[in-house]
């Protein structure tokens, strides 16, 4: 891949917002990636940089705002309405680019969630990250903030969860996904 691989970031850090911090954990992971590890924020610090109030759940726009407020947006890009085929190609192509995705864990594979019962909830919305090209037999390395380490997840399962999230929100183009891409420096 040739790009810096940031450390996994968990949302289960004991903070007061830990169960609504999936987006902030993915944002902190994105910062680690964009800076080549010279900055290693935790989710609450990133939440502060994104100017999120209280412990509300967040979105890709919160991650974008946090990266902008840190002067890192030049190393990232927002891609709206990405087709399934384009996302699949991107996840399979060996670039080391980080992808931040909103997903519905209601369709995440059973047994792959690090928080038992989370996938059983209706509209189990959850932010995850994936590393483009970290492909092993149709699986991609995912950064699930409910976990404490990277996991290998089927690319099609990641896509299905992201499309499901997108399709359940009004104003979104059906059958597509929105994503933030982060471009770590070369390793």
Structural class: alpha+beta
Quantity of strands, as a count: 6
Helical percentage = 25-40%
Bin the strand percentage: 15-25%
CATH class membership: Alpha Beta
Largest sheet: 6 strands, antiparallel
How many separate helices? Answer: 5
Uncertain segments are none
Alpha-carbon Rg, integer = 15 Å
- Annotated CATH homologous superfamily: Cysteine proteinases
Count of separate structural domains: 1
Shape assignment: globular
Average residue-wise pLDDT: 92
Order of helices and strands: HHHEHEEEEHE
Description:
- The chain is α+β, with helices and mostly antiparallel strands and 187 residues long.
- The protein has one domain (18-182): Cathepsin B, Chain A.
- It is 28% helix and 23% strand.
- The protein is built from five helices and six strands; from the N terminus they run H-H-H-E-H-E-E-E-E-H-E.
- It has a six-stranded antiparallel sheet, sandwiched between helices.
- The model has no long low-confidence stretch (mean pLDDT 92).
């Amino acid at each position: 891949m040739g790009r810096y691989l940031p450390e996994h970031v968990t949302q289960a850090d004991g903070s007061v917002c830990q169960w609504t911090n999936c987006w902030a954990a993915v944002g902190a992971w994105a910062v680690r990636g964009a800076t080549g590890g010279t900055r290693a924020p935790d989710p609450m610090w990133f939440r502060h940089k994104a100017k999120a109030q209280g412990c509300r759940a967040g979105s890709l726009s919160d991650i974008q705002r946090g990266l902008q407020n840190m002067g890192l947006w030049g190393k990232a890009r927002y891609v709206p309405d990405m087709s399934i085929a384009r996302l699949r190609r991107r996840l399979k192509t060996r670039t080391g680019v980080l992808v931040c995705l909103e997903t519905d864990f209601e369709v995440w594979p059973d047994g792959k969630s690090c928080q038992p019962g989370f996938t059983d909830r209706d509209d189990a919305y959850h932010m995850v990250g994936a590393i483009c090209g970290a492909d092993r037999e149709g699986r991609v390395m995912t950064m699930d903030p409910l976990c404490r380490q990277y996991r290998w997840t089927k690319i099609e399962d990641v896509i299905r969860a992201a499309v499901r999230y997108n399709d359940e929100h009004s104003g979104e183009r059906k059958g597509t996904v929105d994503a933030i891409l982060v471009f770590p420096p070369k390793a």
